[in-house]
Amino acid sequence: MNIKVYYTSPRGCAASIARAVASHAGCQAEALMPAYMPENVRLMIIGCEGTKPDKATMEFLGSLNPARVKTAALFVCNPRRETAPIAQMRAILEDRGISVLDICAAFPGKGFLSGKRPGSKDIQEAEAFARDCINALSQN
Q1: 6 pLDDT above the threshold of 90
Q2: CA–CA separation, 7 vs 82, rounded Å?
Q3: Are the beta carbons of 85 and 65 closer than 8 angstroms?
Q4: Among residues 27, 46, 52, 138, which is most buried (max CB within 10 A)?
């Protein structure tokens, strides 16, 4: 199965989660900049940090089409585990005709008082997220 994992991670949280997801999916996590455009990807798992998607992520998602990516799964990292960025990313992908899995994940990110994140429990959750995404795609 052709799977790609992309992320933007100014604080390093999404990078750690993406590496755990990619390891379970049997591929490499790629920083969104300077990633190559995906071609004929069956599942793209993409994540960002913060309470809203950054400009680079939104521009990248807006450049995709179903010939490049068939299905996407989304994750976000922020201290409150807010899912608003996922809804924004979902909307742009669906407007582009790309199927988005119902499975999504909000992981804790670094905040002023949040300590060192992600921790080992977060990495285990990331691996479970990857497994659930792959299983959901296999059932379609």
Answers
A1: yes
A2: 17
A3: no
A4: 46
Peptide bond into 34 cis (omega under 30): yes
Domain that holds residue 23: 3-138
* One-letter amino acid for residue 67 of the chain: A
Distance CA 109, CA 62 (A): 25
Q: Which of 65, 67, 87 is nearest to 76 (CA)?
A: 87
Instruction: Return the CATH number at 29.
Output: 3.40.50.360
Give the pTM.
Answer: 0.92
pLDDT, tens digit, for every residue of 7-49? 999 888 999 999 999 999 999 999 998 778 889 999 999 999 9
Rg (CA), the chain: 14
Cβ count near 117 (within 10 Å) = 19
